[in-house]
């Protein structure tokens, strides 16, 4: 008698998805839909300086507070809090504000800052200098990601039409939160379980560098953590293969 195909059992979870710089909540559209299709509860909060909130004069504290307030407003508990890129620093600070509401932290090619660091401290010197110059030349203390940098590092797997479409959606990033030094002593006292997802074609940082990069440079700061790897780059994969990314996020977040 032929065997029935095995059905994958998916444990229903609650996910809170936090996007990174030069993005807004639409970054997660396909991934959120995929997770909901799998039976999960998904929240995708926006934060100041992004999306419809166009005032670029924001602080890192306002951003993390907005995520925490959204979780409180929606009565979210036992959340798998996912941060992408700059969102890694956001979920570090959010965890300090509402640790009792978080089941696990998941960092997706995301910054894991040391106590007293800023996100910009982790940029290679040439990138930091470029961003400082762009910040200085802006009229509203923002940084607009140059097209060649976006094309070669953020969406290096994308075809030209998709690159153009994705670039048309981004807006200047508030600079101040990227350069703020963060007190993370409380974060490093927490015992919340952690996972790291590394997309191996992500070219935002130099590949193979011991000084910069996502994994193992950032991930190793998590202490005991669950590591998952997948094929993808920094921003293309969420748009072109959202279900694959949804499965990775579920695998990172499940018990």
UniProtKB/TrEMBL annotation:
GO molecular function: hydrolase activity
Entry-linked SUPFAM superfamilies: alpha/beta-Hydrolases
Alphabetically ordered keywords of this record: Hydrolase
Pfam families in UniProt: Abhydrolase_6
Superkingdom per UniProt: Bacteria
UniProt keyword Hydrolase present: yes
Domain AB hydrolase-1: 15-164
PANTHER family: AB HYDROLASE-1 DOMAIN-CONTAINING PROTEIN-RELATED, ESTERASE_LIPASE_THIOESTERASE DOMAIN-CONTAINING PROTEIN
Protein's recorded name: Alpha/beta fold hydrolase
